TrEMBL record:
Residues 78-238 form the CRAL-TRIO domain. Gene3D superfamilies: CRAL-TRIO lipid binding domain. This is CRAL-TRIO domain-containing protein. PANTHER family: CRAL-TRIO DOMAIN-CONTAINING PROTEIN, SEC14P-LIKE PHOSPHATIDYLINOSITOL TRANSFER FAMILY PROTEIN. SMART domains: CRAL_TRIO_N, SEC14.
Amino acid sequence: MNSSQEAVNQLNALMDQVDEHLKDTFQILHQGYPTETLVRFLKAREWNVSKAHKMLVDCLNWRLQNDIDNILSKPIIPIDLYRAVRDSQLVGLSGFSKEGVPVFGIGVGLSTLDRASVNYYVQSHIQINEYRDRVVLPAASELHGRYIGTCLKVLDMTGLKLSALGQIKLLTIISTVDDLNYPEKTDVYYIVNAPYIFSACWRVVRPLLQERTRKKVQVLHGSGRDELLKIMDYASLPHFCKKEGPAGSSQHLPPDINDCFSLDHPFHQEVYNYVKQQAQSQALKVPVKLGSFHVDVPEPDPEGTMIVQTIKSELHKIGDQNGDTHECCLTNDTG
């Protein structure tokens, strides 16, 4: 028996001993794939069984304490508020890779995260995570007749400004939620349309990342269109990659009807309708309390804190060099 299988067996034995209420939420977490889920947590803790066990139990307690199992029955209402969240927290499912893996586009540079309270952005982010894990991935697994438990993310840096400094706290909260409760769910992060400001930060942050994380990040040339077409069909490309020419030219294109960030995109309509239906069925059982959904966010680990401080420092340096620490938007670099 190899060491990784032994680690899985040990972690499985430890999970057999947890309370029943933790086992119940673990079932919702693993969606019928307990072994693959144990492997994710082991990978996240470098195959250290005791650390992976603590991480998983902490995750299950977080789910219970914050009622994450029911978050897909907690709509963000009214619809105008949800549209405001979608317009300022740019994320969406654009399609699937040739291997059947979901492809998510994320508009890092143009997300303003300033149209709602932090609680709504965190709630929205977790709902998309849970919809991905409970609906999208199981459907993909069934379609392809094999387990598909991860996604690809294409991060659009178009429009990245030094004002992103003000978003770092919220982005750190969301990143911490993902690191601790949704580990190893992303195979590769493709960076596209990267301006100089990103390149400058990446140079100093890259050495601070764990090797496992560093290997997952690929900075592509320009919009990344040609490289991404090797792993997905044109229809699955995020809208901001469907152009030729220099990076950043997508800013000057008319709105795309296939814009995966828009609330009107089929993916967001599916999520919205699913949550609404879940809320209605829940309401038949018990009165549903609506409103902002508060989620306790664990403290980020020291490594994450150090990376955030490094980014802040680097952004300030770039701002000082350009005579403006707030609104300097540097031109896109095609290199």
